[in-house]
TrEMBL record:
<dbReference type="GO" id="GO:0015074">
    <property type="term" value="P:DNA integration"/>
</dbReference>
<dbReference type="InterPro" id="IPR010998">
    <property type="entry name" value="Integrase_recombinase_N"/>
</dbReference>
<dbReference type="InterPro" id="IPR011010">
    <property type="entry name" value="DNA_brk_join_enz"/>
</dbReference>
<keyword id="KW-0233">DNA recombination</keyword>
<protein>
    <recommendedName>
        <fullName>Core-binding (CB) domain-containing protein</fullName>
    </recommendedName>
</protein>
<keyword id="KW-0238">DNA-binding</keyword>
<dbReference type="GO" id="GO:0003677">
    <property type="term" value="F:DNA binding"/>
</dbReference>
<dbReference type="Pfam" id="PF02899">
    <property type="entry name" value="Phage_int_SAM_1"/>
</dbReference>
<dbReference type="InterPro" id="IPR004107">
    <property type="entry name" value="Integrase_SAM-like_N"/>
</dbReference>
<feature type="domain" description="Core-binding (CB)">
    <location>
        <begin position="46"/>
        <end position="133"/>
    </location>
</feature>
<dbReference type="GO" id="GO:0006310">
    <property type="term" value="P:DNA recombination"/>
</dbReference>
<dbReference type="InterPro" id="IPR044068">
    <property type="entry name" value="CB"/>
</dbReference>
<dbReference type="InterPro" id="IPR013762">
    <property type="entry name" value="Integrase-like_cat_sf"/>
</dbReference>
Length: 490
């Protein structure tokens, strides 16, 4: 079996596809009946494998993102191949078969996955079998429900993993890892990294706004109040824009971008982006028919009007999904200007995998300089872009709580009012900025406002004997060099 993913960019340059006439293909693409990222599972005779192909189509019609469909495709492909090895298929699988598959994934295979990692995989399989039941392909789910608990899943309660950076760690990540400087803030002429200004602008947006990587990496120039023609800010102040289609679960929220973050993006636009777009003009013009070409004179009120698939349409920017943002350009009269803030080769918005490669290269570089006296302390695992979001939340929460305490103490309000003010208002503000649907998610950050290791050091600081250590005592007893001075003091 072979797994493929649909995409308009995968079409041959001449547009000829075997078995489909040119008019039929044009109509299919114009109506977008086959969305980009749709998984297609084919057997040895190149026929669609059922019922998985129908389920993938169902996911696409529900509007699932290509990223989600890709994950589900690989999960179900592994399960399908496992069942085939046992002489079964998805429709004839029993509870024993599926529990054996869980055992294989979590214990038996060469590199078992953790029980926590198994949960998303079990969720995908659950949704597949729920759909099979709803479509009457099978009478009921293969596994049992015991007292409301799903025996197929572990049902392990997972706490949100929060890891944040200190200022020293962030600057080390931004300047040394991404921008290619040395730990002592000098220029490293041996640095051969690509687009350091783009990387710095990305992490500044992430840190100062609290946006997720799927949010800040898909942002458009009009959302930051930037003019795509003259590469300057329309308003020198910070900007507020609406985030919707690219937000997690498409949950709308307002995002404030400080002026300093906008200025970092402007530096990237002038130092790197202009040259990348100029080099990509030939590719952009060649692909013009597949792009959403916006009239530069018709921007405003948070909407873009232009030509897509030969039809003039108007889209609200906040409601534009990532795939549409990737192909949105402005015809400036002298060329095509991508509206995406961050662009890569060919003038297109970088894929998530590209940003991951940037992060891994930065981690390798930071590890190389780990022994330098000016290097920051690194965690055991590489930094994630999401750690910048946690850093934003913790710093904002700490600042708001200190500000609330100062205001209440200065007004000499009773303690009950102080507790209400500190425990409620700052958390609600952070919840709104982060886009959390449940306040309990934001409350988790309270545990990380202070570093517990510092408290441990302070609590036991007076318990240690600073005049003598076990190593010094051992040297004296064994008459080793270095123990005489201590013996004399005793």
């Amino acid at each position: 079996m072979e797994l493929f993913f649909t995409g308009r960019s995968r079409l041959p340059a001449d547009g000829n596809v075997s078995g489909i006439s040119q008019p039929e293909l044009a109509q299919l693409l114009a109506r977008r009946l086959v969305p980009d990222g749709l998984p297609v599972l084919l057997d040895s005779a190149m026929r669609p494998v059922e019922p998985l192909s129908s389920w993938f189509r169902h996911l696409a019609l529900l509007g699932r993102s290509p990223k989600t469909m890709r994950k589900y495709a690989y999960v179900t492909l592994r399960l399908h191949e496992f069942l085939a090895g046992r002489g079964r298929d998805l429709l004839s699988a029993t509870e024993s078969d599926l529990l054996e598959y869980r055992l294989l994934r979590t214990r038996v295979q060469a590199e078992p996955i953790s029980r926590v990692t198994w949960e998303p995989e079990a969720t995908a399989i659950n949704r597949l079998y729920d759909w099979l039941v709803s479509e009457q392909r099978i009478p009921r789910s293969p596994w049992r429900q015991l007292r409301g608990r799903d025996t197929f899943r572990n049902s392990i309660p997972r706490d949100m993993r929060i890891r944040h950076m200190t200022l020293e760690q962030y600057l080390y990540f931004r300047d040394v890892g991404l921008a290619g400087m040395r730990p002592d803030a000098t220029v490293d002429p041996s640095f051969r990294g690509r687009s350091p200004h783009r990387s710095r602008a990305g992490v500044e947006l992430a840190l100062l706004t609290g946006m997720r990587v799927g949010e800040w990496s898909t942002i458009l120039l009009p959302e930051l109040g930037l003019d795509p023609v003259v590469n300057q800010a329309i308003d020198p102040k910070g900007v507020v824009f609406r985030l919707a289609a690219c937000a997690k679960y498409e949950r709308p929220r307002d995002v404030y971008v400080p002026r300093s973050a906008v200025e970092t993006v402007l530096i990237y636009m002038r130092m790197e982006r202009t040259h990348v777009v100029a080099a990509a003009q030939r590719t952009l013009i060649k692909r013009r028919a597949d792009l959403f070409v916006v009239d530069v004179q018709q921007q405003g009120r948070g909407k873009l009007r232009g030509v897509l698939d030969g039809v003039t349409v108007t889209h609200t920017i906040a409601d534009m999904p990532m795939l549409l943002r990737r192909i949105t350009v402005v015809d400036t009269g002298v060329g095509l200007e991508p509206l995406a803030v961050f662009v890569g080769a060919g003038g297109q918005m970088p894929q998530p995998s590209t940003w991951d490669k940037v992060r891994w290269r930065a981690w390798d570089r930071m590890r190389t300089h780990a022994g330098h006296p000016d290097a920051a302390v690194l965690p055991s695992n590489p930094w994630l872009y999401h750690d910048l979001r946690h850093t934003f939340a913790l710093r904002l929460l700490m600042f708001l709580m200190h500000k609330a305490v100062e205001g209440v103490v200065g007004s000499e309000l009773p303690m009950a009012t102080l507790i209400d003010h500190v425990a409620a208002n700052p958390l609600l503000e952070v919840q709104r900025r982060m886009g959390h649907s449940n306040p309990s998610t934001t409350y988790v950050y309270l545990r990380y406002l202070k570093d517990p290791m510092q408290d441990v050091d302070a609590a036991f600081a007076e318990w240690t004997d600073h005049d003598a250590s076990y190593s010094e005592i051992a040297r004296h007893v064994m008459r080793l060099p270095g123990g005489e001075s201590h013996a004399t003091q005793r």
